[in-house]
Amino acid sequence: MIQVGDKIPAMTLMEFSEVEGNGCSIGPNPVDTAQASAGKTIALFAVPGAFTPTCSAKHVPGYVERYDELKAAAVDEIWCLSVNDVFVMGAWARDQKTGSKVRMLADGSAAFAQATGLTLDLTARGLGLRSNRYSMLVKDGVVRTLNVEGPGQFEVSDADTLLAQAKEA
User: Fold this and answer.
1) What is the per-residue pLDDT across 109-124, written as a single tens digit (0 to 9) for each?
2) Could you list the active site residues?
3) Residue 3 falls within a domain, yes or no?
4) How many domains does the chain have?
5) Which of 31, 120, 138, 144 could bridge 42 with an S-S bond, Cβ 3.0-4.6 Å?
6) What's the CA gap between 126 and 164, in Å, rounded?
7) Residue partners of 136: CB distance under 8 A and separation at least 6
C-alpha cells in the first residue's frame, strides 16, 4: 500500500472537459499524474463510485464547500478519483456542480487504485474492483498525509480532515 513519503503512481487518468482551453479539447482528455502534480499541492480524494450515496451526499460536496479554505491553505488543486469511465465522471461533475473547483478524474480500469494498493473488491455486489475511500495531501507528487477509511466508513477522508492537515503542512 502507498505510504506517506511515496510518490503517487505516474500514469494517465482521464478528465472530461466541458469547455475548450488550456490545451484541452471538449470531451475526454488525458491527465498525466506526474506532470499534473509537479510543483503543486494537491488535495486528492478517492471514492468507490460516482453517484453512490455517501460519495454524492457528503464526500464531493464537502470538498466543493471547502474549496476557498483549501486554496487559502496553499492547496493548488483538488482531485476526485473514481473507478468509473470519463463520461460518467463528466456527468457526475455536472450533477455535483464541481465547476473548476474539483477535477473529477476517471480511473476507468482501476490502474491507479491497484498501483496504490488501495482497492476495494465489490465483485459480490456487481461493482467489480473499485477504489477504497481515502484522501491524501500530495506535494510535488509525494504523499504528505494519507487517510484511509475502514470498510463502510466516512470518518477521516473528508474535506475538514484534509483541510486541517493542509493548514499544518
Assistant:
1) 999 999 999 998 887 8
2) 55
3) no
4) 1
5) 138
6) 36
7) 2, 8, 44, 45, 143, 144, 145, 146, 147, 162
